[in-house]
Design brief:
Layout: H1 3-29, E1 31-40, E2 49-58, E3 67-75, E4 79-81, H2 90-96, E5 106-118, E6 121-137, E7 140-149, E8 156-165, E9 170-177, E10 191-199, E11 214-216, E12 226-234, E13 239-246
Antiparallel strand pairs: 1-2, 2-10, 3-9, 3-12, 4-11, 5-6, 5-10, 6-7, 7-8, 8-9, 12-13
């Protein structure tokens, strides 16, 4: 076989290998997301606690990309009314944490599990989440979402969520802007592995975890159930989406 012919064959083989490897590399770096909503109680027309639970997987070296924003689409007929809660200015949360807000402004709680880069390792970080009614933006109600981590980082983060009308099978949407969560110097920002938020509820029910605010289950339910969806954005501009339904009562 001539040297020219040999070089041509090697060039083709190398090109094929690189082409075949490209999708595998992309799959390893993609962040995936799933959502599991729940209503407690799930009874037509009832006052309820809405829980939005997210799970993130994949990403470079098995660490999801840092979450920077999400738009959660809620079913038509689900009524959100925070007017019974006090207002907590974000500046108080930033300077004093949970102690900066009155108890009547608390409308929900939650929990987060994150991964923090420390050299070659990804260390878990747990954070408690408290949700407060924020100042309205025009006619739109807002939430101030405080997450407080303690180990290995003593980190306080405040995300803002804005309720707005939606269209089609979705009656409203919650748009949440999430700031970067810095970790160690020269290391990437913290990444969410799980995030659970519970908003609204019946005060006497211990699992509602709320002190104020009102969310009502729709008075009717589509045959396919109550639809939920989420559009998520990560550092670097990558995106993911998730959708599911809650069965009718």
């Amino acid at each position: 076989m001539s040297p020219v012919r040999t070089r041509s064959i090697w060039a083709v083989l190398i090109g094929c290998c690189l082409y075949a490897a490209t999708p595998a590399v992309a799959a390893q770096t993609e962040t995936n997301a799933s959502m599991r909503p729940s209503l407690l109680p799930n009874r037509l027309g009832a006052s309820t606690a809405l829980t939005l639970a997210f799970r993130f997987s994949g990403g470079a070296e098995g660490v999801p990309a840092p979450l920077r924003g999400m738009v959660v689409h809620l079913p038509a007929g689900l009524t959100v009314n925070l007017r019974g809660a006090g207002i907590c200015p974000p500046s108080r949360l930033q300077s004093r944490g949970a102690s900066g807000c009155r108890s009547e402004s608390l409308v929900g709680r939650g929990h987060a599990l994150m991964k923090v880069h420390a050299g070659s390792q990804a260390v878990p970080e747990e954070a408690t989440v408290s949700i407060y009614r924020g100042p309205n933006r025009g006619t739109h109600q807002t939430l101030e979402i405080l997450s407080q981590g303690s180990t290995p980082l003593d980190q306080r983060t405040i995300a803002t969520g804005v309720w707005a009308p939606d269209s089609g099978q979705y009656g409203s949407k919650l748009t949440v802007s999430i700031p970067a969560i810095p970790t160690l110097m020269l290391e990437p920002d913290a990444s969410f592995v799980t995030l659970s938020l519970t908003i609204g509820g019946i005060r006497r029910h211990p699992r509602a975890h709320v002190a104020a605010g009102s969310i009502l289950v729709p008075r009717s339910c589509p045959a396919t159930g109550f639809p939920f969806a989420a559009d998520l954005t990560f550092t670097g501009g990558s995106t993911a989406s998730a959708s599911t339904t809650i069965a009718c009562p």
